[in-house]
Write a structure and sequence with these properties.
The complex is a heterodimer of chains A (336) and B (329). With 336 residues, chain A is of the alpha/beta class. Chain A contains eleven helices and 14 strands. In chain A, helix 4 links the parallel strand 4 and strand 5. Chain B has one domain: Thiamin diphosphate (ThDP)-binding fold, Pyr/PP domains (Rossmann fold, 3-Layer(aba) Sandwich). In chain B, 46% of the residues lie in helices and 10% in strands. In chain B, strand 4 and strand 5 form a beta hairpin. Chain B is globular, with a radius of gyration of 19 Å. Classes of the chains: A alpha/beta (336), B alpha/beta (329). At the A-B interface, helix 3 and helix 4 of A face helix 6 and helix 7 of B.
Chain lengths: 336, 329
Amino acid sequence: MPKWRMNQAITAAIGDEMAADDRVLLLGEDVGAAGGVFKTSDGLLERFGPDRVRDTPIAEMGFLGLAVGAATCGFRPIVEIMFAEFAGVALDQLATEAAKLRYLSRGAFTAPLVLRMSVGPGLGFGAQHSQTLETWFTNTPGMKVVSPSGADSAYGLLRAAVRDNDPVVILEPRNLYGEREEVDVEAVARHRIGEARVVRTGGDLTLVALGQTVATARAVAEAASVDVEVIDLGTIYPWDVATVTASVRKTGRLATVEANPYQGGWGADIIAELHRTSFADLRGPAVRFTCPDVPTPYARPLEEAYVPAPADVAERIEQWVSTGEVPAPWWQEVLA
Amino acid sequence: MSDRRDESMARRSELADPLGRYRRMVEIRLTEDIIKDLFASGLVAGTTHTCQGQEAVAVGVASVLRPTDMVCCTYRGHGHALALGMPPVAVLGEILGREIGCVGGLGGSMHLSDRDIGLMPTMAIIGAGIPIAAGVAWAAQLRGRDDVGVSLFGDGASNIGAFHEALNIAALWKLPAVFICENNLYGEYSPLAATTSVTDIAVRGTAYGMRSQIVDGQDLEAVMAAVGDAVGHARAGEGPTLIEMKTYRFAGHSRSDLATYRPEGELEAWLARDPIVIEGERLIAAGAATADALAALRADVETGVKLAVEAASASPAPGRPEMFRHVTA
């Protein structure tokens, strides 16, 4: 199996889908001649030509709208938004146009497009280039939202997204673009939209992670004396209720680790639903480990503190399991 | 729904005939009269936006397009839907939220659509359809087909980013698109001069190196000539055109707007340029119809629209399971 960087896996997935289906297009800023600023489309212009690999002006609303139009006519555009923040100026085309076309035409017009964007803190990009922003996308029926945790799921989820008949948003943690992982190109079916994966089994606590926090959760599991089961959520909308429920039934404890602010993060939805359906299985309240409700700070020590750290999460989990005392967010001590 | 399709296609072909076009303009006017009544009686929820006064644009555009061309227009879309061939019962049924509506009552007044006649879901976000129509044109270009993407929008939309981004890309990529601005002099409740730095929207096309034209939107033949030319240009692979239709909405922005902000005499001046009257006089002058024949035609259309209202009103509201269909594949 090849051991690819995540950006190589993304390039391979786009290339494989474009080779398999000539309706697949790629467009975005610098995706062609430059091969993508994160090198997620290196060599694709040379391979597929400018009709199918199209550099666009810096005009996200414009080129996303073009992709929506092309998608209604049978194409399967993959649109790259360089940083998730740039989707802000194009959100209408996704949430209010693409996600509504099927409903408003009783299925006659659909927008099977893929919207890829880099997300997440940790690289010193500052407050306007470090957000995950999944909440911009996860309260809009009519589309799907996924986030890979490395090269393997980036490859699999991207191929699944291109084949999906609805708009799919892919939130790609940009701190993973350069990370290597074995990619099983023969087993694309392991990564289905809407399916979470148990990536480490354990008996004491279910720790649900997404994207860049899957590595955090694995490190927590290695560091903690508690036997942690790690779930890579993979898809945020619609998220895999069955897999999380089965795990909680076994472990009796639930926590999430998130690279986003506390208020309204994806973990809140999971915990609310599990409290409703699996209250009897839980030995206590579920807990979320997230970033604080502040913009991403730039100074390195602050950004390191901003993102949930494996050692800190491991320590709080150990204390929680041994004492039964539910851990509070770390920043409450700072603000007290 | 193949009966609906056959009916729509037959109605579309009626536009080949001058009297058919006149008849369609009358139908739009009378259908919207009924819509205003239905709204006043509380049978239409939310809001509704009429295009009375702008009928020549709707019918002129539809007359020169093929059903395989795709039209992306706005929430002021009743006229365009009817012009493209949608039967009045499908429009009225949708506005009343009934099963017989064009999308089963799930859309409402602002969201009409029918793929068979090339009508994309009408969009209720200002400017949203402009890049989408450019994308439809891009698809045709990539496939080597000579279909065109047509975007219809108001003067207010020429101030929003989507307009500028789409025009730039369309000109840059030489897309087979036709951008038609229905300049009815008001963006919602505000007069053009209060919101827009230019008087003629067409000049904005030249900023993007796009051929642009100003047309009398009250004159059906002028509309057809200009749009026909732009469509031919696009089909020939020569790129997009921006057409500004100088027109006027006889009513306010929406049904809750009494349009008291209009200067005295403005409405009267535009009523004197009623596109239906202009076309009727032309038909009579050309010997294609008599005044009596046009009056009879109008009475006939009125009967048809009344029957459509009855049929739409008799149709049930969609059942609860319908709201869960067509959300995702």
